Amino acid sequence: MTFSEIITDWYHQNKRELPWRKTTDPYRIWLSEIMLQQTRVDQGLPYYLKFEKAYPTVFDLAHAPEEEILKLWQGLGYYSRARNLHYTAKEIAFERNGQFPSTYKELLKLKGVGDYTASAIASISFNEAAPVVDGNVYRVLARFFGVDTPINSTKGIKYFKQLAGELIDRDKPAAFNQGIMEFGSIQCRPKSPKCSECPLNSSCVALRDQLVDQLPVKIKNTRLKHRYFNYLIVQNEQETLLFQRKKKDIWQHLYEFPLIESDKILEEKDIIQHPEFRKLVGKNPFELSRYNKEAVIHKLSHQHIHTTFWTVTLEDHIKGGIPKAEVKAYPVPVLIANFVREYEF
Length: 345
Known about the structure:
Blueprint: H1 3-14, H2 26-35, H3 41-54, H4 58-63, H5 66-73, H6 80-95, H7 104-107, H8 115-126, H9 135-145, H10 154-167, H11 173-186, H12 205-208, E1 225-235, E2 239-240, E3 243-244, E4 255-256, E5 259-262, H13 268-273, H14 275-281, E6 286-290, E7 296-299, E8 303-314, E9 322-323, H15 334-343
Parallel strand pairs: 1-8
Antiparallel strand pairs: 1-5, 2-9, 3-4, 6-8, 7-8
Helix pairs in contact: 1-11, 2-3, 2-8, 8-11, 9-11
């Protein structure tokens, strides 16, 4: 059997039963692929089911308010995916009469759709022999062929895409693409791959040369940014404050408490003297208290957010305040959601 035949045969025998595998509807394939970008299947599945129920068609998604979509997405991370999802849904619904492009090249023109997603939709929904290359595929190909070219280098990206294109089953591209991704996910896993029971083990270069733990090779990005967030929980008995993040930064369009960002951890006197604090409090009497003694470190892909929550209790009415009972209705970063849950608004 050829490589592609072995992969496809393995897939039919071992694939997980997932809702998006029961359809070729490009809307559902697109929805699942966007959600599974940089997200494990077990984490993404509940979100897919929620979105499928709330927005059964691309028209439903297009007509939904962005805040509602962001709230439903809350906790899945990489929120630009949700904003792009909404943007593209409106394009498909209002400019294309609900019809998705049917080719890889045309799909690539959609906002938020890259090489991998375009290949997945083109092959699964339209039977185009467009090879998918994701982390799972890189791992399978690097190990089987013994390729040590870094997968995130320009040369590596081009090479693995070409190799996948040579291997794809042109008669059954959907089964092959889903098969090799699934194979990398549950057979040729990053850690503790099932080499002894692998149908490719007799020809696997990495297994033969004892390189399984060393492949694939990835250039490490050592640039890690540290940011220091001080959230001010401005409150009285009934109200608190939330603002929407407008700038093109992490968590764009999500809501948060008033924020003082600094270049280091601040002490109480630093908060009291800060212009943003004075602008919020004015001349009103207040009680300021640090909620968490140690900073909460929220780790994102290229930055760590060191967060301190400060409670600022006022007696007077809060201008622009919202009822505390409504806080949980707003779409917020998971960092804020965890605090809200613990603080029991």
